[in-house]
Amino acid sequence: MPSMTADQIVATSGHAAWMLISASLVLLMTPALALFYGGMSRQKSVLNMMMMSFGTLGVVSVIYVLWGWSMSYGTQSWGGIVANPLEFFGLRNSITDAGGNYLEGASGYANIIDIGFQLTFAVISTALISGALAERVKFSTWLTFTALWSTFVYFPLAHMVWGGGLLAHGETGFAAWLFGVTDGEATIAPIDFAGGTVVHISAGTAALVLALIIGARRTFPMVAARPHNLPLVMLGAALLWFGWFGFNGGSAFAADGLAGLAWLNTTAATAAAILGWLATERLRDGHATSLGAASGVVAGLVTVTPAAGALTPLTALILGVIGGILACLGVGLKYRFGFDDSLDVVGVHLVAGLWGTVGVGLLATDAGWFTGGGMDGFRLFIIQIVIAVVAMIFAAVITAVIAYLLKATMGWRIDEDKEQHGIDTAEHGESAYDTAGPEIR
């Protein structure tokens, strides 16, 4: 291999630095999610809600090192669905070569940087699901679920979409099957820039399945479970937005114009989604709320995730404002159909994730059905629907199997008395706020 020029060394170092920063930003998103969900919870359950995110950070990080990277990005693919978990078990043969030199990844910098970046995606994707289960599930069962779900749902989907599997753009994927192959690639390549299918559709679908199988809180929907700390919610949303620049901008895998486009599209879509959500609230309820603003932030971020590198800032605004409106309306589905999606994971992540994944088929720059793509744009729209539906079905079936298995063995629900008096004390022996005053000694 020829040695790099000075300019190439500088460029590669810049890309590596950007990716390390991006990985750190995405890692921040899970504690930010803890703040966001914690603030939305009731006072007696805020610690448990936050612990579900921190527990996920512990479990998924460990198993990603052990077998997650291998299952997601290994070269020994099993039917295009998942890779051999033993090929790179414990990251063997993934960091350095026999001479101790760091292995180069597909983007030109050290492979270990990509591993760290992808680890953070696995963590936040799994943690998102917890918002549907507030105040009623055993912490031990949740931790077990995170290990099983990331192993049997997230890692296979990552392989299928990003690791060269069935939902990728190669010659063996669904797109190639539907519309043919040119020079070894699908004629119409599906678009999932940073995780519409892998992250948000899968997590939102899992949240819906779990809410249905585990059941509602004892007081749902008779008693309104209002957020106990709205400033905490808004702080969490702000930190999620900050971290999302690593999530979307880092998915360019270089410090280049594409990363800049993803950054700007992320800002544009999110800002538009806030306005869309607030306008919907104002027309429907007569008030534009702080909770709505914070939720609009997340809805916009979710919407633009699959499309961040495939839009202009103008079409990002269009995609975002529609995403904010749809997500605002989507949070009402739990009351219409009677499932207790406690913190609106289904309404925000599934609804907005579906719209972002399908909407990019309409609005992708020079390729969407509405933006000059012609018949190929229509085909892109169809393949975006296909990958969204496949991701939903796959996540739903596997999540249901895991949920019923845990229900029959460990059990999901805490006792009714413990739920009534507060899961924080029951599961963790703590309370978030000392309301009893100083102890008399």
From TrEMBL:
Matching InterPro entries: Ammonium/urea_transptr (IPR029020), Ammonium_transpt (IPR001905), Ammonium_transpt_CS (IPR018047), NH4_transpt_AmtB-like_dom (IPR024041)
Entry-linked SUPFAM superfamilies: Ammonium transporter
A GO CC annotation given for this chain: plasma membrane
UniProt entry keywords in alphabetical sequence: Ammonia transport, Membrane, Transmembrane, Transmembrane helix, Transport
Keyword Repeat carried by entry: no
Family: Belongs to the ammonia transporter channel (TC 1.A.11.2) family.
PANTHER family the record matches: AMMONIUM TRANSPORTER MEP2 (PTHR43029:SF10)
Name the record gives this protein: Ammonium transporter
Record organism: Corynebacterium efficiens (strain DSM 44549 / YS-314 / AJ 12310 / JCM 11189 / NBRC 100395)
